[in-house]
Design brief:
alpha+beta; Ribosomal Protein L22, Chain A; five-stranded antiparallel beta sheet; four-stranded mixed beta sheet
């Protein structure tokens, strides 16, 4: 069945922990520009994650529309968000995220979508200036009252939610994170216009794809049915 006929928001992840090199078969799925970008990474685990995320995106879309993954034309918008630059894919929104040990890909036919996955780094979180991440005063007070391990997990939940919303919005890091209001209890978020009026509403899906990672998916639209898909990136 064509992915274009599914009114859904779909999410895939792939666990890279323990992988020391990118399989050549993954690299073959990428275009020349993506291969060049992969070579620019200095750390091997960053290179592996980049290759895996782009290979997975090409694989899941190509498989569902009956196209060769390497034939898909993937471009980036003005703020860096990827899109399938082909007429037959108008109306599809995609997002990808990669961090050491884990990648995620999201595809939406019912509105905008953004995904963020992060490795949990307790030391970095505990030494961070929380206000610099766009957290509200209420969120900062909540985190400061927590024990260190609990605080780290709660911070990552808030951070991945903001990253996912910013990606779905399309402006990425150009969107002030202080304009994003997160309601984890309701799995909802809003972006505020001038800090006064909501300009967009977002659904959130949160999960722990591994013990070391946290993920949040954000999407717009009331008609999108969320579908958590099985891993489709083969390991060679």
């Amino acid at each position: 069945m064509s992915i274009l006929s599914e009114h859904a928001v779909m999410l895939w992840t792939h666990d890279l922990q323990g992988l020391e090199l990118s399989p050549p078969q993954w690299l073959e799925l990428l275009d020349d520009e993506e291969r060049m970008r992969a070579l620019r990474f200095r750390r091997e685990h960053d290179r592996i994650a980049y290759v895996a995320a782009h290979a997975l995106l090409r694989l899941v879309i190509g498989k569902r529309v009956g196209a060769s993954p390497s034939s898909l034309i993937i471009s980036r918008g003005g703020f860096g968000k990827p899109f399938i630059d082909m007429e037959e894919f108008r109306g599809m929104d995609v997002s990808l995220s990669h961090t050491p040990g884990m990648v995620a890909v999201a595809v939406s036919i019912s509105g905008r979508v953004g995904v963020d996955v992060e490795a949990v780094e307790h030391e970095r979180v505990l030494s961070s200036d929380l206000a610099a991440y766009g957290l509200s005063a209420e969120e900062i007070r909540m985190l400061e009252l927590m024990e260190s391990s609990e605080r780290c997990s709660a911070f990552i939940e808030l951070w991945t939610a903001r990253e996912a919303v910013a990606k779905a919005d399309g402006r990425g890091l150009s969107l002030p994170f202080s304009s994003i209001r997160i309601d984890l209890a309701a799995n909802r978020a809003v972006t505020m216009n001038d800090g006064v009026k909501p300009s967009a509403h977002w659904h959130l899906w949160r999960e722990r794809p591994s013990l070391q990672h946290r993920l949040t998916l954000a999407w717009s639209g009331e008609n999108g049915k969320f579908m958590r898909k099985k891993d489709e990136l083969p390991v060679y």
